[in-house]
Design brief:
Layout: H1 5-26, E1 35-40, H2 57-61, E2 69-71, E3 77-79, E4 82-87, E5 93-98, H3 112-125, E6 135-142, E7 145-150, H4 157-163, H5 174-179, E8 195-201, E9 205-210, E10 234-239, H6 243-252, E11 257-259, H7 266-270, E12 275-290, H8 300-309, H9 312-319, E13 326-327, H10 353-363, E14 370-375, H11 379-394, E15 399-400, E16 403-404, H12 406-413, E17 421-426, H13 435-438, H14 452-463, H15 467-483, E18 487-500, E19 503-504, E20 521-522
Parallel strand pairs: 1-10, 1-11, 14-15, 14-16, 14-17
Antiparallel strand pairs: 2-3, 4-5, 5-7, 6-7, 8-9, 9-10, 11-18, 12-17, 12-18, 13-18, 19-20
Length: 524
């Protein structure tokens, strides 16, 4: 593949080797005790993990909740609360046997009743619920067995749906799941994870305490799955919006781990003996999304104008200064995903202002203001918005750039009267995972992209288990996203973290994906 894929595959392979080397040196004498202080870059929009794809909710709630499945180190699904599963010959009934003796933080044993109630709630409140649109019923067979019954055959993709940590299908007590049926309404945070909720002060901190009666799996640790041990007594997630304050706090010892390290600080931190900056794979792609249901961008030529004018290299450089941490790549699958491909690359990084002007004329654009909403707490998103807005102005587009905090921005992007376009970032390593942003419900059904053609591809992907056939479907999906201008990708980049050397991470969890802190301990 073009666009430096080989470079990033090599870098990620190197990181995996370094994680293993770190595990060998660190896995000596883990210590219990202490408080692990983590500095996050923005506040929580909600702690209702089922109902939101917004960060940093997965970071904070990863230690509180568990689901039937989780993600392993290779980002494939591995069992979590499920002990085993079997599939009917017609692939329409999936039967899950649950682990016995697992306790909620309120002391009650988890049973199939809880799983059924939790999955029923998840399907209704999660923006990813569309991925199980063909689910007919969740049925409790007995105390430790639950069945998912579908209207049509369902492939192994189901396990990835259950394990993905974005708006995750976590399990909570039945009485809580049924008491909070609405999106973002949850105010009781009771799970089965190694840490339990203690206190949350908005815009200040989230405090968790080790759950002394946690029932761990017995298989080897595997990122979010396998055996989990809670070593620190407490984990406190501090909300620290200013990057310079996070960095200074790490250097001073106020914080043990910080997220969203500026790339300009990476080498300086690396040169300090007691600090360890960390590259956080897989890389995320920034992308422009549109109000597809109301306003200017219901006209595909308006969307094509944006697609034509964007200079992706210029945007990527604005997001992250160091070339070590960004890349141009037309694929919509985060490298080194096996689904990476060049389909639709002719639409990528065109940087053609004159072509954009032609599309604007064809669309009948008359200088109407474009509401391009900006998320301030995410520096890479903020800088990408500024760069794209300047490119739009060069093509004669009248751009308004209202800037919001996370909660306001999330609300505005779902409102067809308040948003024409926005930029967000994330990663998808499997074609089926694109069903969330392309399935007609995200960020709300009032603005979301939808297409019968992409829906049909998602249906086929859910059934298909042959990799080569799924790869071809993934290519077809990628081309459709370009041809229909479902979104406009504007470059990959790595997020960066840093930790103090006294934070021991023998399993190499911290560098992978969302911050995962079980099996991490403090050497002090």
């Amino acid at each position: 593949m073009r666009y430096l894929k080989a470079t990033w595959v090599g870098l990620l392979s190197f990181l995996v080797v370094m994680f293993i080397m770190g595990a060998t040196s660190e896995a000596q004498q883990p210590r219990r005790g202490g408080t692990l202080n983590v500095a996050l870059w923005q506040s929580f929009q909600t702690l209702d993990w089922q109902s939101t794809t917004a960060h940093p909710t997965p970071h904070g709630m990863m230690s509180v909740y568990e689901g039937l499945f989780a993600l392993g180190k290779d980002l494939s699904p591995v069992p979590e609360l499920a002990e085993s599963y079997r599939v009917s010959s017609d692939k329409m009934t999936w039967t899950f046997s649950l682990r016995r003796g697992v306790l909620f933080h309120n002391g009650r044993e988890m049973t199939a009743d809880d799983v059924k109630a939790s999955l029923d709630r998840w399907k209704n409140v999660s923006p990813r619920g569309v991925q199980l649109r063909d689910l007919k019923e969740v049925r409790m067979v007995d105390k430790y067995t639950v069945q998912l019954i579908f209207n049509n055959p369902m492939g192994l993709f189901l396990l990835l749906v259950l394990g993905d940590d974005s708006a995750k299908a976590v399990v909570m007590p039945k009485e809580i799941a049924e008491a909070y049926p609405k999106v973002g309404s949850l105010t009781e945070f009771v799970g089965t994870g190694p840490y339990q909720f203690v206190e949350y002060r908005p815009d200040n901190f989230l405090r968790l305490r080790r759950f002394e009666n946690y029932v761990a799996r017995t298989d080897p640790p595997n990122y979010q799955g396998g055996r989990k041990v809670a070593y620190p007594d407490f984990i406190v997630y501090w909300i620290v919006p200013e990057a310079s304050t996070r960095v200074a706090g790490l250097e001073a010892g106020d914080y043990d781990i910080i997220d969203r390290v500026p790339d300009t600080e990476f080498q300086r931190l690396k040169d300090q003996r007691n600090l360890e900056p960390v590259i956080n794979p897989p890389p995320v792609v920034s992308a422009i999304y549109f109000n597809q249901k109301k306003g200017l961008f219901t006209n595909i030529d308006m969307r094509r104008a944006i697609q034509a004018l964007v200079n992706v290299e210029e945007v990527a450089r604005s997001k992250v200064a160091s070339k070590e941490f960004w890349s141009l790549n037309p694929t919509i699958y985060s490298p080194p995903s096996a689904y990476g491909n060049d389909e639709g690359s002719e639409y990528y990084n065109q940087a053609n202002v004159e072509k954009a002007k032609e599309f604007l004329r064809k669309a009948g654009y008359r200088g109407e203001p474009v509401k391009f909403i900006v998320l301030r707490p995410e520096p890479t998103i903020y800088r990408a918005c500024i760069a794209v807005s300047e490119q739009m102005k060069a093509a004669g587009i009248n751009v308004n750039l209202p800037i919001y905090d996370l909660a306001t921005w999330v609300a505005k992007r779902a409102d067809p009267d308040e948003m024409d376009m926005f930029i967000t970032e994330g990663f998808q390593v499997d074609p089926s995972l694109w069903q969330t942003p392309l399935g007609g419900r995200w960020p709300s059904d009032k603005v979301a992209f939808s297409s019968t053609e992409t829906d049909e591809i998602f249906t086929q992907l859910a059934l298909e288990v042959d990799f080569q056939k799924r790869f071809e479907l993934g290519k077809k999906l990628q081309r459709l996203t370009y041809e229909k201008v479902a979104f406009v990708p504007v470059g990959f980049h790595f997020r960066l973290k840093a930790k103090r050397a006294q934070v021991k991470d023998p399993e190499g969890n911290i560098p992978i994906g969302n911050t995962t802190l079980h099996n991490v301990w403090l050497d002090r």
